[in-house]
Backbone:
């Protein structure tokens, strides 16, 4: 009998010292900060993050974010004391601090499987060696007709209800149905403004219980792990998907998530802590939604 499903919390590190990491938790409560006892522990030199900065508590099927730091915790660009989270939310621990994306997934309980001992096949007995055939006028026997190999099943592209989340720059967009077309043209589901991207560039779809990518350029522009694909290819966890040799590049993650792989930019270390409270007119953080529209992560739905 199948056990009760388990809700797993996922935190994808978008910016900060743990950038690129994915942490999963099924605990009813997780703590975040620089203290060694925290479930999500940031390095000691990231002093902008408090030792006990925040925590996420599960309440039934909902998750509540609670701030414990004077430097503040931000949800989708807004400073909050506490708030309930939903898939795709972006959390920032202190102004200009580490940034993560919040997601959840449901894992079915384990079932008891009967282990059957495999039976070793017995090799066929070879017929005894026959004496040399005596030439005769009769024609030689016709060998039996070998069955033709069955063709591989066709990979069909059909509409199906499965999740897909694409993170590119400051954009985080969620889809509930595939296929999804990526390109520069206005008719695409995910419009990507990049000089190396065609109007109709690639298509993501789901078939045979796995995610696939299809190259729509006809020039083998799309590659997986730096190997150009032949029209279409399946995506495996941690595959690096490049839409062209000049980019953009993504990492495919479990659960149907594409996270942009950005070039590492060196940042000056933060020396002072805690951060003094300043108005939004005095401080100009990099991700200031009031000054740069669209710089804060937006959730765009089709």
Residues:
């Amino acid at each position: 009998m199948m056990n009760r499903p388990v809700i797993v919390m996922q935190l994808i590190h978008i910016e900060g010292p743990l950038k690129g990491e994915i942490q999963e938790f099924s605990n009813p409560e997780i703590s975040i900060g620089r203290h060694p006892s925290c479930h999500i522990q940031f390095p000691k030199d990231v002093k902008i993050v408090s030792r006990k900065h925040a925590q996420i508590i599960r309440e039934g099927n909902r998750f509540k974010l609670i701030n414990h730091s004077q430097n503040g915790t931000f949800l989708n660009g807004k400073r909050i004391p506490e708030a309930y989270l939903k898939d795709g939310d972006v959390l920032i621990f202190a102004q200009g601090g580490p940034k993560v994306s919040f997601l959840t997934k449901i894992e079915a309980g384990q079932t008891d499987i009967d282990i059957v001992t495999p039976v070793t096949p017995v090799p066929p007995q070879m017929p005894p060696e026959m004496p040399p055939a005596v030439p005769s006028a009769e024609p030689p026997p016709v060998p039996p007709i070998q069955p033709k190999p069955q063709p591989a099943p066709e990979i069909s592209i059909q509409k199906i209800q499965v999740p897909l989340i694409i993170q590119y720059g400051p954009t985080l967009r969620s889809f509930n149905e595939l296929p999804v077309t990526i390109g520069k043209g206005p008719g695409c589901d995910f419009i990507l403004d990049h000089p190396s991207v065609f109007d109709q560039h690639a298509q993501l779809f789901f078939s045979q219980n796995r995610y696939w990518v299809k190259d729509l350029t006809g020039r083998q522009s799309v590659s997986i792990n730096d190997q150009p694909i032949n029209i279409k290819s399946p995506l495996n966890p941690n595959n690096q998907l490049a839409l062209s040799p000049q980019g953009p590049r993504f990492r495919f993650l479990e659960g149907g998530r594409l996270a942009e792989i950005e070039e590492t930019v060196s940042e000056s270390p933060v020396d002072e802590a805690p951060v003094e409270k300043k108005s939004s007119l005095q401080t100009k953080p990099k991700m200031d939604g009031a000054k740069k529209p669209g710089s804060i992560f937006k959730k765009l739905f089709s």
Observations:
- The first strand starts at residue 6 and ends at 15.
